[in-house]
């Protein structure tokens, strides 16, 4: 009997952001603005992008006046009062914070209201003001997704709606070539976990009454995630250690594909925990992911052991010491956990909740805030109960 990669009942609803990739595609910016009829754009960027000289590179490509707005490192629902609402288009130049800010700014320009009104799923009334994304890091993948993450009342929350997808992304790897090692490590590990959690997400098998924002894993998301995972795993250490241009290009493409993958499938418990840590500590998202990935993967292992083994074999980790590659699924699954920990350590990221400034006295708050991450927990491969989550959080302090 034929073994199908598209099991009976498989269903999907695939929306993806159009993008251009390659060295120098930034030069296409004027043509893209013309295509979308944008004459008075607002540029959403940050002071770090300006200091690095990247903003000047962008402005040198433009042939029309722009207004510049500086996003905060961790955007909140209170950050939108000073962003012009009469712009005929927005484009983000930066990492996830800039792109997420631009998404909500474009929604507010089109529909008014306040940013907090858009938190949740399917809260945007309709199409938004034209939105272009120019990522300068290889990590968040926000340019490929329909979600913006904002802090509201101390908790990181998401606004998820198909209308929030950028109209186009210009993914120019050269914009990442001068990114410092620590930022490369944090953003690249984000891309790694995006691909990993997308690949392991809960299966999507049935057609819902109406389209849903995050569907669970399906044949398209898995194909994207597998390729993204191979690219990111194969390039991240070299990109951090030496800034090698070839590694930067692979990491840039892998990051975008990982974003496209999880924009279909959703993520899981690792990102739910990391979002909570970010809201409580103000530590960078990549550092919070690194502190969460070990316990998150360990929790999901019983429901995904075969998949863990397959990923470990794809990394070749059990070939390195001469063992039979994949003869024992349990051993191979353990190899995946060990490889994730090795990669995290090799690029200098923290490995516990203690290392990001938390202690056990905060357990109740961590558990409560993580349970609010319903969007991410819904596609986790294993159902997360409060008791299980508490046990997982306590293990993360060890």
Lay out the secondary structure.
Elements: E1 19-21, H1 29-35, E2 41-45, H2 47-51, H3 54-61, E3 67-70, E4 89-94, H4 96-111, E5 120-121, E6 131-135, E7 147-152, E8 155-160, E9 168-171, H5 181-200, H6 219-242, H7 245-265, H8 269-281, H9 285-315, H10 329-346, H11 363-371, H12 374-377, H13 386-395
Parallel strand pairs: 1-9, 2-3, 2-4, 4-6, 5-8, 6-9
Antiparallel strand pairs: 7-8
In brief:
With 398 residues, this protein is α/β, with parallel strands linked by helices. It contains 13 helices and 9 strands.
**Structural category:** alpha/beta
- Percent helix range: 40-55%
For the largest sheet, list the strands in their spatial order. Answer: 1-9-6-4-2-3
CATH architecture designation of the largest domain: Up-down Bundle
Number of strands: 9
Radius of gyration: 20 Å
Q: What's the average pLDDT?
A: 92
CATH superfamily of the largest domain: Dehydroquinate synthase-like - alpha domain
Low-confidence regions: none
Task: List the quaternary state of the chains.
Answer: single chain
Percent strand: 5-15%
CATH class placement of the largest domain = Mainly Alpha
Protein architecture, described:
- The protein is α/β, with parallel strands linked by helices and 398 residues long.
- The chain folds into two domains: 19-176, Rossmann fold (3-Layer(aba) Sandwich), CATH 3.40.50.1970; 181-395, Dehydroquinate synthase-like - alpha domain (Dehydroquinate synthase-like, alpha domain).
- Helix content is 47%, strand content 10%.
- It has 13 helices and nine strands.
- It has helices spanning 29-35, 47-51, 54-61, 96-111, 181-200, 219-242, 245-265, 269-281, 285-315, 329-346, 363-371, 374-377, 386-395, and strands at residues 19-21, 41-45, 67-70, 89-94, 120-121, 131-135, 147-152, 155-160, 168-171.
- It has a six-stranded parallel β-sheet with strand order 1-9-6-4-2-3, with helices on both faces. It has a three-stranded mixed β-sheet with strand order 5-8-7.
- Strand 7 (147-152) and strand 8 form a beta hairpin.
- Helix 5 packs antiparallel against helix 6, helix 5 (181-200) runs parallel beside helix 7 (245-265) and helix 6 (219-242) runs antiparallel to helix 7 (245-265).
């Amino acid at each position: 009997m034929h073994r199908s990669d598209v099991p009976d009942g498989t269903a999907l609803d695939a929306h993806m952001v159009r993008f251009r990739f390659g060295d120098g595609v930034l030069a296409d910016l004027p043509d893209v603005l013309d295509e979308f009829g944008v004459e008075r754009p607002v540029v959403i960027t940050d002071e770090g992008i300006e200091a690095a000289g990247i903003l000047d590179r962008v402005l040198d490509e433009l042939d029309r006046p722009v207004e510049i707005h500086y996003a905060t490192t961790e955007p909140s629902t209170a950050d939108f009062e000073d962003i012009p609402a009469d712009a005929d288009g927005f484009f983000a130049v930066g990492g996830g914070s800039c792109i997420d800010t631009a998404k909500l700014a474009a929604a507010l320009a089109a529909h008014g209201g306040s940013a907090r009104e858009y938190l949740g799923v399917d809260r945007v009334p309709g199409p938004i003001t034209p939105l272009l994304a120019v990522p300068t890091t290889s990590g968040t993948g926000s340019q490929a997704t329909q979600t913006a993450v904002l802090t509201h009342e101390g908790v990181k929350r998401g606004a998820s709606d198909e209308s929030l997808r950028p109209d186009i992304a210009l993914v120019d790897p050269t914009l990442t070539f001068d990114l410092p090692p620590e930022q490369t490590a944090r953003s690249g590990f984000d891309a790694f976990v995006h691909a990993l959690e997308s690949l392991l997400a809960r299966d999507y098998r049935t057609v819902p009454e109406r389209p849903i924002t995050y569907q669970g894993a399906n044949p398209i998301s898995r194909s994207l995630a597998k390729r993204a995972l191979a690219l990111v795993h194969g390039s991240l250490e070299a990109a951090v250690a030496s800034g090698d241009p070839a590694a930067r290009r692979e990491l840039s493409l892998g990051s975008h594909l990982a974003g496209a993958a999880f924009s279909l499938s959703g993520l899981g418990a690792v990102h739910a925990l990391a979002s909570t840590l970010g809201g409580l500590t103000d530590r960078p998202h990549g550092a919070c992911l690194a502190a969460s990935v070990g316990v998150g993967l360990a929790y999901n292992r019983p429901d995904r052991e075969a998949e863990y083994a397959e990923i470990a074999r794809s990394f070749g980790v059990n070939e390195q010491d001469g063992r039979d590659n994949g003869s024992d699924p349990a051993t191979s699954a353990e190899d995946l956990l060990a490889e994730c920990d090795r990669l995290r350590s090799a690029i200098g990221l923290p490995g516990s909740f203690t290392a990001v400034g938390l202690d056990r006295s905060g357990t109740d708050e961590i558990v409560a805030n993580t349970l609010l991450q319903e969007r991410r927990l819904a596609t986790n491969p294993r159902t997360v109960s409060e008791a299980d989550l508490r046990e997982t959080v306590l293990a993360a302090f060890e």
